[in-house]
Amino acid sequence: MKQLFLCSYFAGVKNLFKQYASKKQLGKHVLFIPTAGNVEEYRGYIDEALQTFADLGFQVEVLDVSACDRETAQAKIFQSKLLYVSGGNTFYLLQELKKKQLLSLIKEQVADGMVYVGESAGAIITAKDIDYNKIMDDKAVAKELNDTEALNEVDFYVLPHVGEEPFVESTQATLDTYGDQLNLLSLNNRQAVLVEDEEVKILEGG
After folding, report:
1. Residue 25: band (very low, low, confident or very high) from pLDDT cuts 50, 70, 90
2. Under DSSP, is residue 160 helix (H, G, I), strand (E, B) or coil?
3. What fold is seen in the domain 1-202?
4. Is 120 part of the annotated catalytic residue set?
């Protein structure tokens, strides 16, 4: 069964994930990919996500896809039952995953039962294509990215941080530009979307 837990801000949905992990009996080991944050000035959300997993009793293994070879990255993902992909620059993240030929592997593992947790950029790349996110993220940092086709795991396009600073203007501009063309799914920092095969549920956190 395909299982995705997608959000804008992982630390903001801590209790939702706690309930989800407990219900699904996810085990206590997570493979944590912080790569999207490599090109960002502010990376506090990565520390917060690490702390959230620690608070919930998870053993975290960090895998920076950009800093390891393809074989290592593929082996780690192949062995993982729970994969977390952080926020940051979506185009850079996609570039690094493609350079290590990880997209098809992630899709295979998700189909095989691996749970995928995506925060912000990590949620956006589950769409068919991420070009719509160029208003919010700088494409120029991903100089080796030849196309923006992504995981194609969902039939919607996550738009994270709606109504949240400092993304109020860029999310609104994305809605104005693509709202009529794409099936945008807006999330604030206290919401998550749960995908179980074809079923899609929005969860509201406190």
Report:
1. confident
2. coil
3. Rossmann fold (3.40.50)
4. yes
Mean pLDDT of 112-134: 97
Q: Tokens 């206290």 — which residue?
A: 190
Q: What is the mean pLDDT of residues 14-25?
A: 94
pTM for the full model? 0.97
Q: What is the mean pLDDT of the segment spanning 120-126?
A: 98
Task: Say which amino acid occupies 131.
Answer: D
Residue 160, preceding peptide bond in cis (omega within 30° of 0): no
Structure tokens at 205: 């956190």
Q: Assess whether 86 carries a catalytic annotation.
A: no
d(CA 177, CA 193): 23
Q: Do 13 and 203 meet the contact criterion of CB atoms below 8 Å apart?
A: yes
What's the pLDDT tens digit per position in 64-101?
999 999 999 999 999 999 999 999 999 999 999 999 99
The residue annotated as part of the active site, out of 80, 86, 120, 186, is 120
Query: How many other C-beta atoms lie within 10 A of the C-beta of residue 51?
Result: 14
- Point out the catalytic residue in the list 8, 80, 161, 186: 161
Backbone dihedral region for residue 120 (phi beyond 0: left; psi -120 to 50: alpha; all else: beta): left
- CA-wise closest residue to 193 among 168, 157, 169: 157
CB 114 within 8 A of CB 4: no
